[in-house]
Write a structure and sequence with these properties.
Number of strands: 13
Radius of gyration: 20 Å
Helix content: 40-55%
Bound molecules: zinc ion
Strand content: 15-25%
Oligomer: single chain
Strand order of the largest sheet: 3-2-1-4-8
């Protein structure tokens, strides 16, 4: 029965929930997107997640109870054994622990596995995307914040559930205040939210920029990746400077991480990473270079290729037997 080989994937983001149904050959058969609730409690978020996957299943012509399982990529600290999520600070009322896997499993009638959102997106790039040629990679997701995921020798490295927080690698001791409350984190210079805050402070001090005009023209309330990229294309001085500062911070943080991990490749994803594309990946590689201890043998630096659905695809891989996937990927690469 074909439907028994289908699986679900849900990417739980701060602004949207992306759900897919995917088949054994990793082809997306149905998808659905919902806004992440901004009020209410984790139970309300879980209800929307279940609705999103149910809609995706309807589009694929299957009942969720017929799936072999569903995977979830979630922010916060994930307990890989129980699928409980705690400290998802950008979601409503989610500072404590919530049994996400158990609650979703009950609603969907299939088993549910939960992983860290950035880690599963990294694993998707490793198994199916830009990371396929390599055995060890570092995923860097450059968006509102800067998230990281690690695959070592073919296996995701999650530490005790909190590994990969590359955004909070310190690039300047006593430096700028980060959204996490600490100082000098890479994200305090390179995260889109921090870049926007810096831009606003510069405007208050009388600096000129078209960033906020471009934002209003597009009917946005935030400096999106598209706004940043257009401002840089139009040579907006402040935008160019803030992006340069971000790249310097990324170079220091990623370069230092490479000194520790020595992975074969860095995969750059996230809203800004994908929008700026390969030329920016090359700028980041150049900014890493002075910080590399092993500087004659730098890692490859590539842009993520799975795009918007990468997170949901990665989540779905949590319920797919891993050895099968990797050996098929490896064959596909050689072919
Ligand atoms: Zn921080």
């Amino acid at each position: 029965m074909a439907s028994t080989r289908l699986r679900g994937g849900i990417d739980l983001g701060g602004t949207k929930i992306e759900a897919i149904i995917i088949d054994a050959g990793d082809t997306v058969m149905g998808s659905s997107r919902r806004a992440t609730p901004t009020t209410g409690r984790p139970a309300g978020v879980a209800r929307e997640m279940a609705r999103a996957l149910t809609d995706a299943a309807k589009a694929a012509g299957v009942e969720t109870s017929r799936l072999i399982g569903a995977g979830v990529g979630s922010p916060g600290v994930v307990d890989p054994q129980t699928g409980a999520v705690s400290g998802a600070r950008n979601l409503p009322g989610w500072s404590g622990r919530f049994e996400l896997a158990a609650v979703l499993s009950e609603k969907l009638g299939t088993k549910v596995a939960v992983g860290n959102d950035v880690q599963v997106a990294t694993d998707a790039e490793f198994q199916l995307g830009a990371g396929k040629p390599y055995k060890s990679i570092l995923g860097v997701f450059w968006g509102t914040g800067v998230g990281g995921g690690i695959v070592l020798d073919g296996k995701p490295w999650v530490g005790r559930g909190g590994a990969g927080e590359i955004g909070h690698v310190v690039v300047r001791v006593g430096g700028a205040r980060c959204g996490c409350g600490r100082r000098g984190c890479m994200e305090a210079y390179a995260g889109r939210a921090s870049m926007e805050a810096r831009a606003r402070r510069n405007v208050e001090r009388g600096k000129r920029t078209d960033l906020f005009k471009l934002m209003e023209e597009r009917g946005r309330t935030r400096l999106t990746s598209a706004v940043w990229s257009h401002a840089v294309e139009h040579n907006d001085k402040l935008a160019v400077k803030l992006v340069r500062d971000a790249v310097i911070a990324l170079g220091a943080g990623i370069g230092s991480s490479i000194n520790l991990l020595d992975v074969e490749a860095v995969i750059i994803g996230g809203g800004l990473g994908i929008r700026f594309g390969q030329p920016m990946a090359e700028r980041i590689a150049a900014a890493m270079q002075p910080h590399l201890f092993n500087d004659t043998h730098p890692p490859d630096v590539k842009v993520a290729i799975l795009g918007d659905l990468g997170g949901a695809i990665g989540a779905s891989l949590l319920v797919k037997p891993r050895t099968t996937t990797r050996s098929r990927s490896a064959r596909a690469t050689k072919a």
